[in-house]
Specification:
Blueprint: E1 10-11, H1 13-17, H2 28-37, E2 47-49, E3 57-60, H3 66-81, H4 85-96, H5 100-123, H6 125-136, H7 140-149, H8 158-162, H9 181-191, H10 199-213, H11 220-230
Helix pairs in contact: 5-6, 6-7, 9-10
Length: 231
């Protein structure tokens, strides 16, 4: 699965000041203050010494404010979005063949990403990643890596992108594996409420509870097919 990244990934403070990107100061002094305020240099994976004449620092686009990141990605979204439909089908077919233990790892990663996205509007992505990483017991670099895995991926296609890809993950799910009835009942009752939430919304709500209670779950598409068959 190809990840979407901007054409220009590394920026100097002077380039950022002239970029016109939203929420990025238009003076070098202002950008320097942004760098210091958010501790960009505390993330060695996203900053580096600039080689060549003049020296200085370069910063990864991943440290930029959310709106600036979205504008950079929008410039490359059109060509990247044209993926063959079979790519999605193959990804989900691969995911649905994974052991439940591997699927739950993908679910755990997705929930952490959703926590980052919930905090991001209030405190910015960098601080959101650090806070969620601290609370969840993960390394900030690990969380950044998971965020990179879902860049440009549709929200309802994130689980295959987040599933670990090692030899054990490639094995098939043993026959007879199923979700807990309580998970299905909770999902069904939420989806059939008079408020008529979307299936994805109901699935995410049921998924959070299931993960917290240690219930066995199945992928969203599988649950949708099962629910359609019973309604």
């Amino acid at each position: 699965m190809t990840l979407m990244v901007p054409e220009k990934e590394w920026w100097t403070t002077a380039e950022l000041a002239e970029s016109g990107l939203p929420d990025v100061p238009n003076t070098r002094q202002g950008v320097d203050q942004l760098v210091d305020r958010h501790g960009w240099r505390t993330h060695p994976e996203h900053c580096r010494r600039r080689s060549g004449r003049g020296g200085g620092w370069e910063y990864s686009w991943r440290l930029l404010p959310s709106r600036a990141q979205r504008k950079l990605l929008a410039a490359v979204a059109a060509p990247k979005a044209a993926k063959p439909k079979q790519d999605r089908a193959e990804a989900w077919a691969w995911y649905e063949g994974l052991p439940d233990s591997v699927k739950l790892k993908a679910v755990d990663r997705l929930l952490i990403i959703q926590k980052v996205e919930a905090l991001e509007p209030a405190i910015g992505r960098d601080l959101a990643v650090r806070e969620v990483a601290r609370v969840s017991g993960q390394g900030a670099r690990t969380v950044w890596g998971w965020l990179a895995l879902v860049e440009g991926v549709r929200p309802d296609d994130r689980l295959p992108a987040l599933a670990p890809r090692h030899r054990m993950a490639a094995s098939k799910t043993p026959r007879g594996k199923d979700c807990d009835p309580e998970f299905f009942d909770r999902l069904k009752s939420d989806f059939l409420r008079v408020e008529a939430p979307s299936f994805s919304t109901s699935y995410r709500r049921a998924l959070r509870v299931a993960v917290a209670e240690g219930l066995a779950v199945l992928p969203e598409r599988t649950m949708r097919r099962r629910l359609d068959a019973t309604c």
